[in-house]
Every structure is written in C-alpha cells, then in structure tokens.
Amino acid sequence: MLTQNHNGSTESQMSIASVMQECIQNCTDCYQICSSLISHCLEKGGAHADAEHIRLLEDCSRVCNLAADFMIRHSQFHTRICDACSDICMACAKSCEAIADDDMMLSCAEMCQMCAESCKEMAKMH
Question: Which of 4, 86, 93, 115 has the fewest Cβ atoms surrounding its Cβ within 10 A?
Fold first, then answer.
C-alpha cells in the first residue's frame, strides 16, 4: 500500500525521484571523468591510446550526458537510454580496468561501474 506524505507525493514516487537523482549525478560524474580521461590516455600512448578504447571512452561520455539529459527532462524514453548507457558504461569499465595502471584509470573504471549499476536500476523503473 502506498502512503502519501505531507505534500501529496507517494513513497513510491519519492523513491523513483531519489533513484533518478542519484542516477543523474552518476551519469554527470561519469560523463566528466570519461571526457577528461580521453586526453590523459592519448598522452600516455600505447594501449591507452588504442582507437577502440578512445572510442569507448567517447561513447560512454556521450551516452552518460544523453542519459542525464533525458532524465532531467523526464523524457518518456529515459529508461531505454539508461539501459543502453548501462551496457556502454560496463564495457568502458572493463576497458579501463584492463589497462589500469594509475589512479585516473582506476577512478574511471569505478565510476563507470557505479554509473552502469545506477542506470540498470533506472532502466527497470517505469
């Protein structure tokens, strides 16, 4: 049974809003770290500058920004975007983990993992 609080919102609505707000923050943080990591990886060279890895960082950055935007605007398609975002973030986390040799790479992998989990949860909500 859903109960209403003092301003008329149900607990379920508040829960969804809370999960969405956390997901928006995770997407924004992931967008920022992946965007900044691109230049870091290009400067490091070698496996870090591999075209597939750089494209994945860029894909992750862009889809995170898109997912945050869709959630902020309460788009009816935000769950679909969040589902795709989760998949791309997981792939990016694995790519960063595979070549993690400094704190920036590890931080990116952790943030991508956190964002993937958050987006997967958001994708389940309708």
Answer: 4
Helix/strand/coil (H/E/C) assignment for every residue in 95-106: HHHHCCCCHHHH
**Residue 52: CB atoms within 10 Å:** 9
- Give the burial string for 53-80 (b: 16+ CB within 10 Å, else e): bbebbebbbebbbbbbbbbeeeeeebbe
Domains of the chain, first to last: 13-124 (1.20.1270.360)
pLDDT range class, residue 17, cuts 50, 70, 90: confident
Question: Measured between alpha carbons, how far is 3 from 9 in angstroms, rounded to an integer?
Answer: 8
Cα(92)–Cα(59) distance, integer angstroms? 9
The CA-CA-CA angle for residues 114, 90, 52, to 5°, reads: 130
